[in-house]
Amino acid sequence: MKITIAGGAGCVGSCAAYRLAQHGFVSEIVLLDSRRNVAEAHGLDIEQAVVHRTKTRVRAGDIKDTRGSDVIIVAVGVWGRSPTASRAMNLGQNLGLVMDLVRPLNAESPSALWMIVTTPVDALVHLIHRIFSIPREKIIGINRNDTSRLRWSIGKVLSVPATDVEAFVLGEHGDTQVHLLSRVNVRGERVSLDAQQKGEVRSKIVGFLSQWNQLQPGRTAGWATAESIGDIIGSVASGDKQMWASSTPLEGEYGLHDVSLGVPVRFGPTGVKEIIEFDLDPAERTGLEASANAIREQIKRGEALLTESAGALNELLTWLKKGGKRS
Length: 327
Fold this sequence. Notes:
Strand content: 15-25%
CATH superfamily of the largest domain: Lactate dehydrogenase/glycoside hydrolase, family 4, C-terminal
Helix content: 40-55%
CATH architecture of the largest domain: Alpha-Beta Complex
Distance between the termini: 55 Å
Number of strands: 14
Structural class: alpha/beta
Low-confidence stretches: none
C-alpha cells in the first residue's frame, strides 16, 4: 500500500507517518510539504525508527512522486486560533490550500481513498466530494478524536478504563457534535448515566478545545489524530469490519442529504463499505439535524469563497490579456 501525506512535515502529518510506518502492509509513504527539508528529516528519522520492524519506505516528494497512491491524507492547514474560536473559523484560511492540492493529486491517483484531516473537516469533505466528483465511498473526514475523547471522558467519570467503554459521537467535528449518551456500553453491557454524570462527561469534552488552545502548545493533537488514521487504514487493509466514526457524505442515512458529517462506518479494501444507522432518541435526532444545518452553512460559505476566488482570477486574466493596462 502506498500512502501520500499532504502536510507531511507538520505535526499531524509526521505523527501519522510514524504510526503508519509500523504497519507491515504499508510499502511506501510520501511526505508532501512546502518545507521539503523538514519532510526529508522526518522521512530519515521514521525510516530508521522502524528499521527493526518493517520495510516501509518513508520519503519526501513532490506531486509526481505521489502517483499511484492508494490513500491520500490531507493534513495541510494554517495553524493558530484564539482559545475561544471554533474549527469552523479555519474555512477561509484552509479552503484554498486544500483545493489547490486536490486537483493535481487526484490526477496522479484517481482511485485513491481520500482522508481529510484539515478543518473544518465536514465542509471540506463535502466540497471536495462534489466539486471533484470523488465517489462518497472514496472520501472521509477524520473526526474519530471526538469519539475517543467521549470514551476517555466517560471512563474518567465512571472510574473505568476507557478501553472498556463503547460510545460514539455523531455530527460535526466541532461545536455542534452530538454525544450519544443513550447508548453507552461498558464491557459490553449497556450503562445508563444519570443527569449529573452526563453533565460531567459533556463538560470535559466541550471544554477540551478551549483548554488545549489555552495551553498554547504550538501544535495540534497529532498523536490522537495519527492513531485514528492508523486504525482506519488498518481496517481498510484487513477488512476487519470494525466500526469507526468518520465524516462521510450522506445520501439519506439518518434522514439527511447534501451534507457530510460524522457517522459510524465500516471499511473494505476500496473505502467505505457500510454506514451504520443507530436508533437515536429524540434529543439526539434533533441535535444531529442541527449539526447538519451548521455544516450546510459552512458548505455555503465555502462555495461563496470559491466563487469569489474564481471571479477575482477571471478579472486578473482579463486584465493580463489586455496587456496589463488598466482601462
